[in-house]
Amino acid sequence: MVSRVGWAANRAARGLPSRRGEVFAMRRDRAFMELAVREMLLSRSEHTAKSDPLVGAVLVDRRGKELARAHRGTLSAGDHAEFTVLERLLPDVDLEGSTAYVTLEPCTVRRAPKVSCAQRLVERRVGRVVIGMTDPNPDICGRGIQHLLMFRDRLVVRSPGVLLQPLTLESLRGEGAVPYSRNPRIADTCYHLGLMEQRGSGIPGMRLRMAKLGLRAPEFEQDAGCFKVVLWGSPLQVGPEVLTELTPRQRHMLELLLDHGRLTSNDFREQAKVSRDTVHQNFQRLLELRLIERRGAGRGVHYVPAAR
Fold first, then answer.
1. Inter-axis angle of helices 276-288 and 248-260, nearest 10
2. Residue 179's CATH number
3. Which pTM does this prediction carry?
4. 225 is in which domain, residue-wise?
5. What is the pLDDT of residues 195-234, one digit of tens each?
6. 295 close to 301: Cβ distance less than 8 angstroms
7. Does residue 3 surpass a pLDDT of 70?
């Protein structure tokens, strides 16, 4: 019989949150999604000859405080719920790391000059999106989810389920992890049929290939019941013709932006020990090259990597 202390320690060793924390997070997600559903029922269709989907959206900050909510047509007929929250209700608020609860998978295609809701969520750096249901339209279904899982600087692979004992995150992050399969016979058969690599070659091979390319080692995490592998790309994903136009200081600014996701003038002044005018001139150059974007107003002004 395993004691509660031993059980909790085992979950911690495998990178899982405590059971109490997991239950709290699930209840919080349910509560905010119920708010989104109630908001959804207020939706207004902009057409008389056909029906439009009912959609509700709720945005919550890192601490779990509601920032805004909206439904289809909250302020103007035809406006999507996500657009209303992001661009009409919270245009100048820093939303990095926030969570959006939407009843329907965000759209991925809009007629120009409109921007899709999925792209707006990415550009505003919303950290997490909880979706009530995928779009029933087979031409759209799943594309909004795929769009939200794309990153400019890394590849994230999620596999449902937790690590099999005796594997732990600590052993995978080290060099001596012993390979383990749920069914070794199936794994061996798949290897001989050419359907998978030899057992035990995957993670060492990942490390070797990343090192040869001068990239960071793969990262392993356990997140919300999924095993997650993060493969980081090159810190500066710009062409050589652009790099030649950048000074060392401007390259450093761009690397900091890509590492942290955002940067203010004061952040870089403290980091590089340079004057306000110098910082301004270098930010202006990066803006001219369309490598960064300016966000916010007044004291809230900051810079983020440009969507590419």
1. 80
2. 3.30.565.60
3. 0.52
4. 154-232
5. 877 777 778 888 888 887 667 788 888 876 778 888 887 6
6. yes
7. no
pLDDT band at 47 (very low <50, low <70, confident <90, very high): confident
Surface-to-core class of residue 76, CB atoms within 10 Å of its CB (0-12 exposed, 13-18 middle, 19+ buried): exposed
Q: Cis (ω within 30 of 0) for the bond into 106?
A: no
Q: How far apart (Å, rounded) are the C-alpha atoms in residues 287 and 274?
A: 19
Q: Are residues 20 and 143 in the same domain?
A: yes
Work out how many domains the chain is built from and give that number.
3
Nearest to 131 by CA among 198, 81, 205, 75: 81
In whole angstroms, give the CA distance from residue 74 to residue 198: 55
Please give the structure tokens belonging to residue 119: 């792209």
Do residues 24 and 127 both lie within one domain? yes
pLDDT of residue 83: 94
Task: Write the CATH number for 120.
Answer: 3.40.140.10
**Mean pLDDT score of the chain:** 81
Query: Does one domain contain both 211 and 274?
Result: no
Q: Is residue 32 pLDDT above 90, yes or no?
A: yes
Q: Are residues 119 and 83 in the same domain?
A: yes
Longest dimension (CA), the chain: 66
- The CA distance from 204 to 220, in Å, is 13
Rounded Cα–Cα distance for residues 29 and 224 (Å): 12
Taking the alpha carbons of 205, 162, 99, 110 in that order, is the dihedral positive or negative?
positive
In tens, the pLDDT along 49-72 reads 777 889 999 999 988 999 999 999
Q: Which two tokens stand for residue 7?
A: 């059980």
130 and 166 part of one domain: no
127 & 162 share domain: no
